[in-house]
């Protein structure tokens, strides 16, 4: 068949063949009045994709097309779409639908809607499935589709749609800005953006890393100082010094939580956006009572935060550091293996979709 009846995507069949991609014809949801079809030009790779395809976050039935950091061209818009027109360069992140009617949605918390639909491995209420961005096209609700500013290059803009909003939203909701001291743990795909946002918002920003090789990068990204967590007693000089700590590492199940929570000021946040496959270490109530730290977390962000993020990225020059690979079955497999091995500094964007999907 082909577009608009079907899309084509690079998919995996299950956790046992997580790095073996092949082309599959995908059936999108029925097109609605608020829908937008995006002809994809770039899709970045997120650790969420890796956690999903390996089964780390649960079993799934393939074929599964992942990818939720998408930039492309709007090629079809529903009759009720007002802000985007055919031909616009747009982006779609990790959510493609919510009810927009419940109390959470009305309170600008649509990213926590009980009926929300993730960009992939998620089912709509009519039984149809959402498919990700390792594909020729994507279909999404206009509320979750954003015009990309002209000054943001396509391959660089793509990671902002998930990694960007995931790290930006908790910082602004916590009131991070001048006069605040912020620590960012785990300087990878998420953390290298968390550092840039915190600095762009005016906070005194520090990187916490186990990698001495990343010290120079961290300072280029906006860190005033780098705290090496492999040093014995690293936390001692920093007890109760941070207003907000953003954990972007997905290995918190291996953390000495007493040490990490000790650096947070009373009533400050140790905030989780990196999500490990395994549970956090067991913690006693006394661990929280002693220093009054709060252990918090968040998922994505809302529509207004995404709009503000794109504006701030242009104004302050916030840019994901990306390595670009042409999309193909082979390169998708290679990319997820490199992601598993933490080889990217700091994000991978898959590009050249025109060649992969033989567009005229």
Automatic annotation (TrEMBL):
Domain Alcohol dehydrogenase-like N-terminal: 32-150
SUPFAM superfamilies: GroES-like, NAD(P)-binding Rossmann-fold domains
Ranges for domain Alcohol dehydrogenase-like C-terminal: 189-313
Molecular-function GO terms, alphabetical: oxidoreductase activity, acting on the CH-OH group of donors, NAD or NADP as acceptor; zinc ion binding
Cofactor(s) for this UniProt protein: Zn(2+)
Keyword terms, alphabetized: Metal-binding, Oxidoreductase, Zinc
CDD domains named in the record: CAD1
Superkingdom of this protein's organism: Eukaryota
InterPro entries hit by this protein: ADH-like_C, ADH-like_N, ADH_Zn_CS, CAD-like, GroES-like_sf, NAD(P)-bd_dom_sf
Pathway the protein takes part in: Secondary metabolite biosynthesis
Family that this chain belongs to: Belongs to the zinc-containing alcohol dehydrogenase family.
PANTHER family (UniProt xref): ALDEHYDE REDUCTASE
Name of the protein in its database record: NADP-dependent alcohol dehydrogenase C
